[in-house]
Design a protein that fits this description.
Layout: H1 3-10, H2 15-18, H3 27-34, H4 38-52, E1 57-67, H5 96-108, E2 113-118, H6 128-140, E3 144-148, H7 154-163, E4 167-169, H8 179-182, H9 188-200, E5 204-206, E6 209-211, H10 217-228, E7 236-241, H11 258-271, E8 276-279, H12 288-296, E9 301-304, H13 316-326, E10 329-330
Parallel strand pairs: 1-2, 1-9, 1-10, 2-3, 3-4, 4-5, 6-7, 7-8, 8-9
Helix pairs in contact: 3-10, 4-11, 5-6, 6-7, 10-11, 11-12
Bound molecules: S-adenosylmethionine, 6-(5-methyl-2-OXO-imidazolidin-4-yl)-hexanoic acid (DTB) and iron/sulfur cluster.
S-adenosylmethionine binds near residues 148, 171, 242, 245 and 281.
Length: about 350
């Protein structure tokens, strides 16, 4: 066992010390975390988690595909790429009224954030007015807004921010070195560039990736290092388990070992102590026990509802049974709190500390 593992293993972090924000993670120490004995890793992750969050509360987001299929990009995992024969029917950009009807239903079902995704390499100028009206309309319902539209120009970014977009989702998906095995129509640098400009404009960042695309443990760790070593940690870090979609190049990929998936969540929690870590795609293929371990490892956000963008999600009934079994409750949105709360602030203590991370 490498000496760094022994050091991590024997250190008993206080919640506060364990929650300090760092942006200088090195591969060997992050790998040492990943390879800790499982019980030590989970104990450490849960300790860090309790330094910033109520461990029994889970933030709930709802997704909607506002423009489905026919995408020019060749992402090897995606049902919506025009490069793959997945049988998915492409559709045009949805009408604003329909989006708002769906968002109202999501709010009534307990979602606090509405995430709208489009199968675009980047938005066309002619679509921006419709997209901006969606942001304004959802915001007016009292929900947080999130969009994922591909690469953005500076002008797109300013318009989205000024319309009231809270979060922009743009995943790095995997490590830089594994990236071109999965996507060839854009580069890792393209991805980081959009993320940096979204951040510079003052929007919140949602960025994570997919586990189980045939990558090595080192790739998972490198992806987390990329995210944790950004100037500011993404407020939201979605960790997706690959949904192997028939007709995509990844359709026959061997399923990730659930313990490895939980390890990835735990390392994300430790490296980004104040970010919401979302147990994202793939929950229909997870047992209750696996999801419980993910929550224990520090996941504290999910997508609710019976669909993601094009794939299935467990749905409200299953999730309410699971939440009841685990004593978990939805995190409510507190719009009263200071929107300038930054992830680089010291963790608040006592009741309500989790809500202080929300805006
Ligand atoms: N076109 C935009 C983009 O790529 O940024 C937005 C939509 S895209 C579907 C959003 C994210 O969903 C991807 O970056 C990927 O992480 C995740 N995703 C897509 N298909 C998936 C799959 N089959 N399994 C797991 N995650 C998936
Ligand atoms: C993210 O990381 N996962 C979501 C959201 N961001 C946009 C998308 C998951 C998509 C799963 C496959 C599908 O529904 O097509
Ligand atoms: Fe297009 Fe996004 Fe799917 Fe890639 S992940 S093919 S960019 S919709």
């Amino acid at each position: 066992m490498p000496s760094s593992v022994t050091r991590l293993d024997t250190a008993r972090p206080s919640a506060r010390a364990a929650s300090s924000i760092r942006h200088d993670w090195a591969r060997d120490e992050a790998m040492a975390l990943y390879e800790l004995p499982f019980m030590d890793l989970l104990f450490r992750a849960q300790t860090v988690h309790r330094g910033s969050f109520d461990p029994n509360k889970v933030q709930m987001s709802r997704l909607l595909s506002i423009k489905t299929g026919g995408c020019a990009e060749d992402c090897g995992y995606c049902s919506q790429s025009a490069h793959h024969k997945t049988g998915l029917k492409a559709s045009k950009l949805m009408e604003v009224e329909r989006v708002l009807t769906e968002a109202k239903k999501a709010k009534a079902a307990g979602a606090t954030r509405y995430c709208m995704g489009a199968a675009w390499r980047s938005p066309k100028a002619r679509d921006m007015d419709t997209v901006l009206a969606m942001v304004e309309g959802v915001k007016a319902l009292g929900m947080e807004t999130c969009m994922t539209l591909g690469m953005l120009t500076d002008d797109d970014i300013i318009q989205l921010r000024d319309a009231g977009l809270d979060y922009y989702n743009h995943n790095v998906d995997t490590s830089e070195s594994y990236y071109d095995k999965i996507i060839t129509t854009r580069t890792y640098a393209d991805r980081l560039n959009t993320l940096a400009r979204v951040r510079d404009a003052g929007m919140k960042v949602c960025s994570g990736g997919i586990i189980g695309m045939g990558e090595e443990r080192e790739d998972r760790v490198d992806m987390l290092i990329t995210l944790a070593n950004l100037e500011e940690h993404p407020e939201s870090v979605p960790i997706n388990m690959l949904i192997a979609i028939p007709g995509t190049p990844l359709e026959n990929t061997k399923r990730i070992d659930p313990i490895d998936f939980v390890r990835t969540i735990a390392v994300a929690r430790i490296m980004m102590p104040k970010s919401f870590v979302r147990l994202s795609a793939g929950r229909t293929d997870m047992t209750d026990e696996m999801q419980a371990l993910c929550f224990f490892a520090g996941a504290n956000s999910i997508f609710v509802g019976d669909t993601l963008l094009t794939a299935d999600n467990p749905g409200e009934d299953k999730d309410s049974v699971l939440f009841a079994k685990l004593g978990l409750a939805p995190l409510e949105l507190d719009l009263e709190l200071d929107p300038d709360q930054s992830l680089d602030h010291e963790p608040a203590t006592g009741a309500g500390r989790q809500d202080a991370r929300q805006s």
